[in-house]
Write a structure and sequence with these properties.
293 residues; alpha/beta; four-stranded parallel sheet; 14 helices; 40% helix; globular
Length: 293
């Protein structure tokens, strides 16, 4: 523990040695802030992280239980959604700090097209594409290009896992992804998508998810359609940008409308970026205004 530290900030603490160290840090007069952006106790069993986080199956050195204990012992807990505040700060020493995006995302050139894509990977979101039902498969079979960003070739390309998750047969349709890339290249690749998909199946884990995915799309100039999870609804109501799909028919209709209308895509692209500026949804607008407080 640094002798001159007033505050130590930790993110997603799941290791027992760190968890055990928090009370000692506080005994030495150092405030400890723990930040959480997912409910680690509610991870989908099909996600590889599930077994590593389970208290009864994972390593006792690394678990969701450790994360909860760290939050219970912390001076302050910061989270990205109200649902996470309830899960990790029952003691009342918590605050919601919504996820935001860097200013420079707004300056990335957006390349418009009639393609559709998802900024995620099947192995870490094993069931979420299923929220769209056969909607995207119908569009791809009709000639729409799927151009995704964030898929991991080790999992999706070798066994056509992405096509399977979309409801397509191996080799069927015009389906491609950018694959793995450095983190700073990810938003640049997102900005090459025509219409961004933000599906989340209705689970406890996803009900605690933040609005980050559609916000990233907006910042990169990408029109989006998403599932009606709480934070996606809140972003839509705040900015009046994007569309929410309650079921497969909505997904098909709303995505098809955007695919077929360049004017709609261009309007939503400009409106999304303008809304981020208007509502101050960037790091730079919040760093000193909220986080430092």
């Amino acid at each position: 523990i640094p002798r001159d530290a007033d505050v130590i900030m930790l993110q997603r603490v799941a290791m027992s040695t760190l968890t055990q160290g928090i009370p000692e840090m506080r005994r030495r007069g150092v405030a400890v802030v723990v930040d959480m952006d997912d409910d680690l106790r509610r991870i989908d069993p099909n996600n590889p992280a599930f077994w590593g986080m389970r208290d009864d199956h994972g390593s006792p050195m690394h678990s969701a239980g450790n994360a909860l204990q760290a939050c219970l012992d912390a001076t302050l807990v910061t989270v990205s959604t109200p649902a996470l505040l309830k899960a990790y700060a029952p003691h009342g020493r918590g605050v919601v700090l919504e996820n935001h995006v860097p200013d420079w995302y707004l300056d990335l050139p957006h390349r418009d097209s009639a393609s559709v894509g998802w900024g995620g990977a099947v192995h870490s979101h094993p069931t979420d594409l299923g929220a769209m039902g056969p909607a995207v498969a119908r569009l791809v079979r009709g000639g729409v290009e799927y151009w995704g960003v964030g898929a991991d070739y080790r999992f999706e390309r070798a066994d056509d896992g992405l096509r399977k998750a979309l409801g397509l047969r191996p080799g069927e349709g015009d389906v491609d992804t950018a694959g793995d890339m450095p983190l700073d290249m990810w938003p640049r690749a997102v900005a090459t998508m025509g219409v961004g998909l933000a599906p989340l199946v209705d689970t406890e884990f996803n009900r605690a998810k933040s609005w980050l995915k559609p916000l990233e799309y907006m910042a990169c100039g990408v029109p989006w359609v998403g599932s009606p999870r709480d934070e996606y609804v809140r972003l839509r109501n705040l900015t009046d940008v994007g569309a929410l799909a309650k079921g497969p028919q909505d997904w098909y209709r709303l995505v098809k409308q955007m695919v077929e209308s360049r004017a709609m895509r261009e309007h939503l692209s400009a409106a999304g970026r303008a809304a981020i500026v208007e509502h101050g949804l960037t790091y730079e607008s919040n760093g000193w205004a909220r986080w430092a407080q």
